[in-house]
Amino acid sequence: MLEEETDQTYENVLAEIQSFELPIEATLRSVYDDQPNAHKKFMEKLDACIRNHDKEIEKMCNFHHQGFVDAITELLKVRTDAEKLKVQVTDTNRRFQDAGKEVIVHTEDIIRCRIQQRNITTVVEKLQLCLPVLEMYSKLKEQMSTKRYYSALKTMEQLENVYFPWVSQYRFCQLMIENLPKLREDIKEISMSDLKDFLESIRKHSDKIGETAMKQAQHQKTFSVFLQKQNKMKFGKNIYINHDRIPEERNETVLKHSLEEEDENEEEVLTVQDLVDFSPVYRCLHIYSVLGDEETFENYYRKQRKKQARLVLQPQSNMHETVDGYRRYFTQIVGFFVVEDHILHVTQGLVTRAYTDELWNMALSKIIAVLRAHSSYCTDPDLVLELKNLIVIFADTLQGYGFPVNRLFDLLFEVRDQYNETLLKKWAGVFRDIFEEDNYSPIPIVNEEEYKIVISKFPFQDPDLEKQSFPKKFPMSQSVPHIYIQVKEFIYASLKFSESLHRSSTEIDDMLRKSTNLLLTRTLSSCLLNLIRKPHIGLTELVQIIINTTHLEQACKYLEDFITNITNISQETVHTTRLYGLSTFKDARHAAEGEIYTKLNQKIDEFVQLADYDWTMSEPDGRASGYLMDLINFLRSIFQVFTHLPGKVAQTACMSACQHLSTSLMQMLLDSELKQISMGAVQQFNLDVIQCELFASSEPVPGFQGDTLQLAFIDLRQLLDLFMVWDWSTYLADYGQPASKYLRVNPNTALTLLEKMKDTSKKNNIFAQFRKNDRDKQKLIETVVKQLRSLVNGMSQHT
Which pTM does this prediction carry? Predict the structure, then answer.
């Protein structure tokens, strides 16, 4: 049983080996690993299997041998035919080869042509693919050459996004792709160069641009004023210009002519687009936008424009000398901001409102500082007025473009003060010239025509003068109507500055009155005071000046009416400023009166200095001194001139003259350099004092009550009476009593004069006869001197 299993196992192994499907190594290993002597048994089994196969092969060969023999025999028969066939085939092949050589040649030609045709087709296809790219690149080159850079950038975008992907494998495409960044940089540089040229161009054209814009603004303003005037005419309002009240129709005619002239020139007025080609900045902006570098362009543009703004805002050092300097300064600034406003409205983002506002605020601060500094150098009111008009047009122009200009109008108030100062200086010269040319005598008129001419210049009303027959005289001199006219001219000049300031009539009225007050209280008052104090102005001129100031003072109400007619603001308005002319002329009159008193006293001093007394004379001449009689005659003639003065002025002058004369005569007696006086000299001096008293009693100026004027010499009279009568006992007995006869005689004065006479007695022996006749009288003098000294000492101790 076991052997059968082993045999079966070997059979299986052999089957596996014959099948060649399983790995033989595992099969053989299973033979040797099963049991001892397995190899031997397996080999035996293998040999038996081989023998079986050999037997089968032999059987098969025997079975097929006859067929094999037959096949060989048949093959040998075919061999002969095969050789014949080979010869035939060889011959046929030879002939075929000979015949096919030409075909081969033609076939090769056909193949070559087909290859060329295919290559041509391929080339055509590739060229059709490349031609649009090349055409676009050629178009790009053409656009670059014709400076159509924005279109060139668009073409580049098309090339990169559409065309280059088709031909990216070709070398020429790579070259093009590499060249595009360089072209973009070239475009940026060229565009930036164009922008620089544009910036330089607008810098050069700023004057013309600003001038054009200001002309347009002025034309529009003139037209608006014309419409306002027409509206006022509907309500019957009049304005007053030049020297007379004239209706609005005249002003309307002037405005119409002005408008017609501007309409004729309107065609010549160019716009900013006509003066400047803005295409470079548009082109550059578009180019940088396409390149995605718009921010760089905006920053560069704004930086350069700020630099230009600083240059424009820097004035010339001599700008204040001429109005053209100011005009050039304003036109450049206006031109700059007109360009910025245009850029703001035609571009998006390049210039913003915030940027222009910041730039304008910076410029406005600089402009105000420049104008404030340069206007302070202006001394010509006409130049200041021209400057004001330029500032107004400048402000109106920029306001029309949306820029705030309130600070400029505030500046005009400072300029107005400067204008008023220059006007005051100019009118100070005018007043000085008027005073220099005046003859300080009443205005003579010989006929009605001359009378009307004076009345038309100055509002003088005097019924008594009107009734007088020709020839006659106005009480004032020529300077009065001239000054009145010049004050009105000053008001007109001041009014010119108030025009176009967008102020109400009340404010204009207030400005006019304040400036007129300055003219009266400062300029005219100063000129009058300087005139009054001039050395060559005599008493007659001073009297005429007082008369003139009186009439000018009366004319102040007409000046107030004049201002009211201009502004249509009633004087009864609560806030209306009053003119201070009354106080001005009163002060001038008081100064003239004081100068009269001073000059009159100086004249008296000049006469007194001519006194030539012989203080040692024994007997008087029997008549008054010549210098004193000349002085009295002079005073009489002067006081005749004073009849035109107000009563109190003439009386005060007369009293002052008499008091000064009395004081001068008293000082002459008590002069410390005068050491001795004789009784004859005292008597001669008494004669002069008597003449003074006679003059005072003759009432040289009417209006004095009783002997008021004579009291000016009361001190001299009592002193001279005391010495002439030699009434010392009465003087000493009544001294200090209110009812004393010699109440005005001071003990010190009496002592001084008595000692001068005492010294004369000792030296000239004048009192010798007294000593001989009456020695007691000499003792009386000694006693009087002692008593007077005692009184003087008592007064000193009391003091």
Answer: 0.66
